[in-house]
Specification:
By secondary structure, the protein is mainly beta. The protein contains one helix and eight strands; from the N terminus they run αββββββββ. Strands 3-2-1-8-7-6-5-4 form an eight-stranded antiparallel sheet. The two termini are about 20 Å apart.
Amino acid sequence: MHLPFLRKSFFLALMAASSPAISAPVYLSCVIDSGPHFSIGSPLTFTFDETTNEVLWGNGVPAKGVYVTSTEISFLHSGHLNKGLVSISISRTDGRFSTTVLTMGGEQPVSGTCKLTDKTL
């Protein structure tokens, strides 16, 4: 499929999630494609429900500090690659996300791409 079409489809779906008439959650499947070698290919899945301003991890655990704008979804997370809470931001225009992971050299930026799915994996 043509990349601009995918970006437009992603943008339209996430923007539709902000419509009061649409209350269905949006499911995102994301993969790290830039960062330390051990993090490349790591999957992340989320459910985003703008009617409640809630982001759930693929395992159903609610994210903390959810902040939503017309162009971005941001929230805090902790994981096996971090110490404490770190921010993750997902662009509502092109599906790119960014966060950090902890390495022996300190925190390193990672980023990747999210796509819409029927449900979280």
